[in-house]
């Protein structure tokens, strides 16, 4: 005997909202956002200096070539680029 599965409207709405949140988060991982800026930049004393931004946000700035993000919601991203300068503060 087959059993009927009863699903409430609120369960369906919640599932749809969760799927939309996942789509929005994963699409933002592949897109660059915002102007290049960094509040936590650290540089070595070498010549030329090697500078890295330590900011963790839900996106990477537009100039980032190597963005590392978690798969959490919201994602936690940081730019892994090493430059010979620091971007201006956000």
UniProtKB/TrEMBL annotation:
Domain Bowman-Birk serine protease inhibitors family: start-end pairs: 37-90
Key word 4Fe-4S present in the record? no
Disulfide-linked positions:
37-90, 38-53, 41-86, 43-51, 60-67, 64-79, 69-77
GO function terms (MF aspect): serine-type endopeptidase inhibitor activity
Tell me where the transmembrane regions lie. none
Residue ranges annotated as coiled coil are: none
The terms describing its cellular component in GO are: extracellular region
Cite the entry's keywords alphabetically. Answer: Disulfide bond, Protease inhibitor, Serine protease inhibitor, Signal
Entry's family note: Belongs to the Bowman-Birk serine protease inhibitor family.
> By what name is this protein known?
Bowman-Birk serine protease inhibitors family domain-containing protein
């Amino acid at each position: 005997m087959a059993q009927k599965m009863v699903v409430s409207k609120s369960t369906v709405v919640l599932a749809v909202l969760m799927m939309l949140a996942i789509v929005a988060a994963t699409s933002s991982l592949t897109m660059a956002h915002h102007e290049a800026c960094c509040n936590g930049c650290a540089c070595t004393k070498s010549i030329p200096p090697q500078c890295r931004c330590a900011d963790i946000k839900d996106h990477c700035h537009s100039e980032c070539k190597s963005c590392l993000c978690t798969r959490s919601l919201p994602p936690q991203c940081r730019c892994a680029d090493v430059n010979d300068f620091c971007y201006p503060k956000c």
